[in-house]
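Team,

Forwarding the record for the chain on the shared tracking sheet. I've put the sequence and predicted structure together so nobody has to dig through attachments.
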Amino acid sequence: MGNLVNLSKYVLISLLFICANNMVHVMAQWPKGGSTKYYDFKVQMLKVNKLCDTRNIVTINQKYPGPVVYAQEDDRVIVKLTNETPYNATIHWHGVRQILSCWSDGPSYITQCPVQSGQTFTYEFTLVKQKGTLFWHAHFSWLRATVYGALIIYPKTGVPYPFKYPYEEHTIILGEYWNQDLVQLEKNVTASGGIAPNADAYTINGHPGPNYNCSANDVYKINVVPGKTYMLRLIGALLNMESFFSIANHKLTIVEADGEYTKPFTTDRVMLGPGHTLNVLVTADQKIGKYSMAMGPYMSAQNAPFQNITSIAYFQYLGASPNSVPLPASLLPKFNDNLAVKTVMDGLKSLEIGNVPKEIDTNLFFTIGLNVNKCGSKTPKQNCQGVNGGVMAASMNNNSFIRPNISILQDYYDHISGRYTEDFPGTPLKFYDFVNGAPNSSPNNTGSTNGTRTKVLEYGSRVQLILQDTGTVTTENHPIHLHGYSFYVVGYGSGNYNPQTANFNLVDPPYMNTIGVPVGGWAAIRFVADNPGVWFMHCHLEIHLTWGLAVTLIVKNGQGPLETLPHPPADMPRC
């Protein structure tokens, strides 16, 4: 009898794991306790036919988008990365807090040297108190344009969602596609001193949709049952653009942002910048038909070129004719509709009362924006194609970050000095009307300093950071991402930050890892610096990162092993 009981347990557990792997109505009842999930990632070339063109793109396991990493809260995740391409590669686990695992965070030359062709490296981290929709992407050059995938973390066994269980879940990744070699493209843009070319297409789960040439059948589709409610896991994996998303005639109810539950908020459309994730509920409550799911551009910078062709996917009811004409998603806002962005941000509130730091002992103020440096080239037509014959740059506190050719984390751990400095200013060197009175005689008074400058934080510091957009060159919405942490977005507004008039929410602010600093405005974030290591903070518009809109934060060790950065893994790549 005992053997029969054990056999029954074994069969039950096996069935549950089969369910988990096939994602049958999503959350499987896995065995209790944090388990370990193993994944094998091979960086490989894949031949694709898109937009009337055939080319090889860099992928993981020859999948575009890449494989989904599934886990549960508190699971340990181990991913062996083998590089079978001629390019360098690293993977960043976007939104994972990497508690005591900074070595596995992934940004090249910040926490690790790249994994070179033919090499392997194993990423290991624990999803401590984390659940929801995150994602992973390459963090070398511009490879993340094609190297990305979902990271889906389910609640612990027996813990329900805080909303009615959806009939099905679907992951929707918004991206951009170029008919070019992305590593070479970054080199060309950098050498030119000018701006990046527009993407050739926007994509939904890798598909451009019928608005693009040769793409009538290159369309993503979800089949839905009338009357049922679906959860869509929306992921912003765009490279250099931000994007609106909507479904014709359907409402979206946001229930999670950046892997944290929110109070339900219903809207007609959402905006996702690179690095943002949102979970939305959609009910198939319209007449039977085929409805367009659309992504289109949000461009807040002045006079900036962008791809203006909308990418379309289908939200198709069972019973609809396959040849029926899709209802257009007429709700996409105008490309520069800042109010539509603000309306969604205003609706984001944490589901539960947050543990927001009330007492602050470290006040930081970072300006963010673009620059134009003077031309120093003997071939200005080739190398100085920025505004007024200058060279484009971007900065925080007017310092353009230069990524070194070593790992800052390794140098910090080994106490090697000289290849980075610890003198990043905690406030601007000069205060003025950042939005309306910024210098704008490019390139004469719009230059930036540059260097591999870091800001050091004491362990346990309660940090408030003001992020202030500037009007040099142009104001713009900047999606700022902080590695290794989530933070409370306690306030934001237009114009220059004024502590006397700023309204803060210290009760239920959203807890995020990427914040779109409003165009011509500011955002205030708070966090406790309780995770030792070297953490990159940067604009997630890749061209701005290339230009230097970044800083590295060093959080010092605290007391004892649970507050101390462990030693590096044995297989850490060498530069």
